[in-house]
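Aim 2, interim progress: modelling of the iron/sulfur cluster-bound target.
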Amino acid sequence: MECGRLKEDSSRPLIVVSRCLGFGRCRWNGAELFPETVAGLKTGLRFIPVCPECEIGLGVPRQPIRQVVSGNAVRLLQPASGRDLTREMENFSRSFLAGLPPVAGFLLKSRSPSCGITDTALFADRSDTEPLEGKNGPGFFARAVIERFPSLPLIDERGLEEQETRLNWLREVGARKNSEFK
Ligand code: SF4
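Predicted structure of the complex, ligand included:
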């Protein structure tokens, strides 16, 4: 499946968005999402859709991946295939973020091992059925976003559902519109 590319448009704020949030059928199970909160932003913002898992060559549909503790590190594993995708995801994230034009913020998919910003599950072992309690955090791509652009407004689709969180994010996006953050 082809992944998203920059949509040419006017000077409206430019946002990097998880592609599965209404920009393409790229979820692991092939399902489509059409969050109304995201759809409502399309007239006021421009978007760069990206699916990190698609970009590292995982197909649609695909076997799920997960974050697994390994010593002092966290690995990105696909239990069904035994693949360790850590390096591919780190390399893609670094390269993609380095190649961005100036953007005003990020809108990512919650709970994803790649895109989740605060609530991605962490597993003690690749075969565990339950995640570690109280250890949720960012996914691999989101972590790279936070490290490279720590001051850029970042939200997930769940945050958009909370009025105050959404308005704060939009205010920050508006304030940073097309500034240089690289
Ligand atoms: S959450 Fe991220 S990696 Fe997963 S399908 Fe959506 S865009 Fe792709």
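The mean pLDDT is 92. Residues 3 and 55 are 7 Å apart (CA to CA).
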